[in-house]
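Q: My labmate handed me this sequence with no annotations at all. I'd like to see what the chain might look like in three dimensions before we decide whether it's worth expressing. Could you predict it?
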Amino acid sequence: MKLKLLLLLLFFVVKTNAQDTSLRVETKDIPNRLAFYAVNENEQDFDVQIKISGTNFRQSQGRPRWIRVPAASKVHLKTIVLTRGKKPNYTYDLLVNDSLSRRALKKEFERIKIKPKKPITLYITDACLTCDSIVNPLDASNYKYIKHLLSEKPEIVDQLKSYLPAPIDSIKAPILNIGGRLFTQIETYDKLLEELNKE
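A: Here is what I predict for the chain of 199 residues:
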């Protein structure tokens, strides 16, 4: 009994410590073909390998190769040729490895936007002098975020007034909501990242 309990406890500890890879497969219909893509919604690179089995399609018979999928990206993995006039029936196995190999195939990839560790909402006032120093890097980053121009959203201004220490018109920095906390002193993208990565 004690051994079973210990094994069960060990299983739950391993399960909770397992990393969430946030990696999924998307398919795209192409005339007479079906393309498979790996979408990495994580801040870590992975090597992946896909094995497809089923009927009503043809595929390359070569050995499956490991393919590098960079952080916050979408990479083409494989394309199958469909049998004309028949619906393909397929299943796939996706192997994911966080130990990167030098032998992994490095294909072209498409950058995607991912959710940050904490949600980011940016409120821009008319008096904001340093907004570009945060908005431009955020637009160029991999992170999804929400941006509101307060001059166009009076209802949000009314909500924010009760939570801010100073009148909104006097705040020269962007107003940031990071993970449910309001900030009015963050003036650079590096400071934003520092706050974002705090536990």
